[in-house]
Design goal:
This protein has 127 residues and is an alpha/beta fold. It has a single domain, classed as STAS domain (Transcription Regulator spoIIAA, 2-Layer Sandwich), CATH 3.30.750.24. Helix content is 45%, strand content 29%. Strand 1 and strand 2 form a beta hairpin.
Length: 127
């Protein structure tokens, strides 16, 4: 499986899309997160669609916890940003995604996990 990371702005939906495929480390996840925050600022977008269906994350829960616990604030993520994650297929990555959602919401950010991009986009468009 090829590894790839891509962050793009979707103007028709006013959201930032993060696509992660294959094996990605904590640093890879941090890098795309920082890039997504910068795109969100540039386009005044408050929605993220994280396409992680084909992701295999090689990061510990502690490393993933750094995102909502420290890095979002440090990198000035708008606190009203909604993060929709398309559920990974790989078992360990799926468990880590669910942990991330729980931790993120418990720390006051907004994140949900979805089985499809369509459901995720509908949630992102809710006000």
């Amino acid at each position: 499986m090829n590894t790839s990371r891509k962050v793009t702005y979707q103007p028709e939906l006013n959201l930032v899309e993060i696509k992660l495929v294959g094996i990605n480390t904590a640093q890879d996840v941090y890098d795309v997160t920082y890039e997504a925050i910068k795109l969100s600022e540039k386009y005044n977008s408050l929605g993220w669609l994280v396409n992680s269906g084909e992701l295999i994350v090689r990061a510990s829960r502690a490393e993933l916890f750094e995102l909502p616990n420290k890095l979002y604030s440090l990198w000035n993520l708008n606190p009203t940003t909604k993060i929709a994650i398309i559920e990974p297929k790989e078992t360990h990555t799926k468990a880590k995604a669910h942990f991330y959602i729980l931790a993120t919401n418990n720390l006051g950010w907004q994140a949900e996990i979805f089985s499809s991009g369509r459901k995720a986009i509908l949630w992102l468009q809710e006000t």
